[in-house]
């Protein structure tokens, strides 16, 4: 797992990107079977969407 420097502790954009990266690394280590083939893509998509949704919401605040 990647350590977050104290100066960036509350940098949510960076933290959500690290979440996606860590989940992808984790998913690559999981052995393959029928159940996992269905669950891992959902897990990766959900983890990545956290960062995408945060960035989208953060950009929307600028226009308000």
Automatic annotation (TrEMBL):
InterPro entries xrefs: 23S_rRNA_IVS_sf
SUPFAM superfamilies to which the protein is assigned, alphabetical: IVS-encoded protein-like
Protein known as: Four helix bundle protein
């Amino acid at each position: 797992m990647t350590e977050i420097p104290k100066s960036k502790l509350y940098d949510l954009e960076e933290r959500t990107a690290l979440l996606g990266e860590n989940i992808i690394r984790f998913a690559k280590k999981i052995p393959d079977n029928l159940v996992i083939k269905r669950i891992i893509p959902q897990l990766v998509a959900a983890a990545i969407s956290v960062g995408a949704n945060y960035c989208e919401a953060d950009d929307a605040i600028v226009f308000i």
